[in-house]
């Protein structure tokens, strides 16, 4: 058995107790054995350092050739994120579907106004009374002038249903909704047939679109339907959209 | 990747490293990859360069592997906490090293406690003799050995048994592997003393 093998057996625990004792005694008395032991231990240390350098080099190559891994997330984190995304997509889809499939009551009211109030028609025979002049001004897009003419008529005849209707429509088109609601409310109280006052007042509330306007419009539309007033068919459409 | 890495719980990595062989290598790589994001975090937190942090991280993983093999990782904390603490300490060491320019602070050489087996009365003399050897020269000479010899010595220094080395390198028995390893050491000694390879 050469020195190195004996040293290896000692450090690997392959010696019996007497052999160990003998080796330890020789270690102190035999300089050659002591030197070889030092070499053995230094070789182990140097080989370990070399091994670590190799591992380090392998990992550096790995870092350069593979993408940087991100922080590890648990499966629940992925599941929660997926569920949140799904809910968000469903929510957006539902919202878009609602928006596309059913126009809002305000949009319906606006469509009605654009369709029916773009022209007030012309008085038969081309008369030159204030109402006719007001309608002509309105049809020409001169809303301020038309409004002044209808107001002048109302000063003379406060319960003139045509003047109230036209003044209300002018106010509606010029976005003076408070005024429009006032005119149409007055119209609704008049004993005329057909009376569009309640329906038009509901339209004005929908266009104003303030916090309580929707409720108010709903009540008025319900009245139109219940009492079979002018605009019942349109009122039914609008109330469904509310 | 996160989903798949969860297939390797801490204990599987520890067991794999202790098992040795190919499994050990795989588990070391899994361990290295798993917490590599600490490099980015460390760089931001300690204001060190990415390269410095990557080096500190590599040393961290090597230390953790050493601790696992030496049964010094007792599992009182999770592997992540353990890695994080060592990495943090290494980063602080690096900052000190940068501030004081003392390279010795960042000593990455593995602590080999084999010498502790030597009886107390003989140890100082052996240590003095060891100090006379040039570790760096010895390491250079290891690189001059044949590939088979080099691999054998590195595996032995990493703690592989002769039986495992025999299995890895295709020797018939652990005795043959041991004899070959000791011959390689003799050759290394010759190289170290100046004999040409």
UniProtKB/TrEMBL annotation, chain A:
InterPro entries cross-referenced by the UniProt entry: TPR-like_helical_dom_sf
Membrane-spanning ranges: 75-96
Source organism, top-level taxon: Bacteria
Keyword terms, alphabetized: Membrane, Transmembrane, Transmembrane helix
Protein name: Tetratricopeptide repeat-containing protein
Species assigned in the record: Nibrella viscosa
From TrEMBL, chain B:
Origin: domain of life: Bacteria
Family annotation (SUPFAM superfamilies): Sigma2 domain of RNA polymerase sigma factors, Sigma3 and sigma4 domains of RNA polymerase sigma factors
InterPro entries per record: RNA_pol_sigma-70-like, RNA_pol_sigma-70_dom, RNA_pol_sigma_r2, RNA_pol_sigma_r3/r4-like, WH-like_DNA-bd_sf
Keyword Secreted: no
Keyword Transcription attached: yes
Keywords: DNA-binding, Sigma factor, Transcription, Transcription regulation
Similarity annotation: Belongs to the sigma-70 factor family. ECF subfamily.
Protein name: RNA polymerase sigma-70 factor, ECF subfamily
Organism, scientific name: Nibrella viscosa
Organism ancestry: Bacteria, Pseudomonadati, Bacteroidota, Cytophagia, Cytophagales
């Amino acid at each position: 058995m050469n020195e190195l093998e004996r040293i290896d057996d000692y450090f690997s625990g392959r010696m019996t107790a007497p052999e160990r004792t003998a080796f330890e005694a020789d270690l102190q008395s035999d300089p050659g054995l002591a030197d070889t032991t030092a070499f053995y231990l230094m070789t182990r240390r140097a080989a370990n350092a070399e091994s670590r350098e190799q591992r380090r080099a392998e990992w550096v190559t790995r870092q350069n050739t593979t993408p940087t891994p991100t922080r590890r997330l648990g499966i629940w984190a992925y599941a929660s994120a997926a569920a949140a995304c799904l809910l968000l997509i469903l929510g957006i889809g539902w919202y878009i579907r609602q928006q596309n499939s059913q126009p809002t009551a305000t949009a319906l009211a606006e469509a009605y106004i654009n369709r029916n109030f773009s022209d007030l028609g012309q008085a038969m025979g081309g008369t030159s009374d204030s109402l006719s002049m007001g309608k002509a001004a309105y049809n020409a897009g001169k809303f301020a002038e038309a409004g002044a003419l209808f107001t002048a008529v109302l000063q003379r005849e406060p319960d003139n249903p045509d003047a109230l209707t036209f003044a209300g429509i002018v106010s509606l088109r010029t976005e003076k909704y408070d005024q429009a609601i006032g005119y149409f409310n007055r119209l609704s109280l008049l004993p005329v047939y057909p009376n569009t006052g309640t329906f038009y007042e509901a339209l004005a509330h929908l266009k104003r679109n303030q916090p309580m306007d929707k409720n108010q419009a709903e009540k008025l539309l319900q009245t139109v339907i219940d009492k079979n007033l002018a605009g019942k068919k349109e009122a039914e459409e609008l109330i469904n959209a509310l | 990747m996160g989903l798949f890495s969860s297939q390797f719980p801490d204990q599987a990595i520890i067991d794999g490293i202790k098992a040795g062989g190919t499994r050990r290598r795989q588990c070391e790589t899994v361990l290295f990859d798993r917490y590599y994001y600490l490099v980015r975090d460390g760089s931001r937190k300690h204001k060190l360069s990415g390269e410095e942090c990557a080096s500190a991280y590599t040393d961290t993983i090597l230390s953790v592997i050493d601790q696992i093999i030496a049964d010094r990782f007792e599992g009182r904390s999770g592997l992540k906490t353990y890695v994080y603490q060592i990495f943090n300490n290494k980063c602080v060491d690096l900052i000190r090293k940068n501030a004081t320019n003392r390279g010795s602070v960042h000593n990455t050489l593995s602590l080999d406690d084999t010498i502790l087996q030597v009886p107390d009365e003989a140890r100082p003399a052996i240590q003095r003799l060891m100090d006379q050897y040039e570790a760096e020269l010895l390491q250079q000479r290891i690189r001059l050995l044949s590939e088979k010899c080099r691999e054998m010595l590195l595996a032995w220094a990493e703690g592989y048994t002769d039986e495992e080395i025999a299995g890895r390198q295709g020797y018939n028995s652990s005795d043959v592997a041991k004899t070959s390893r000791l011959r390689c050491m003799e050759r290394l000694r010759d190289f170290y003393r100046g004999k040409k390879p």
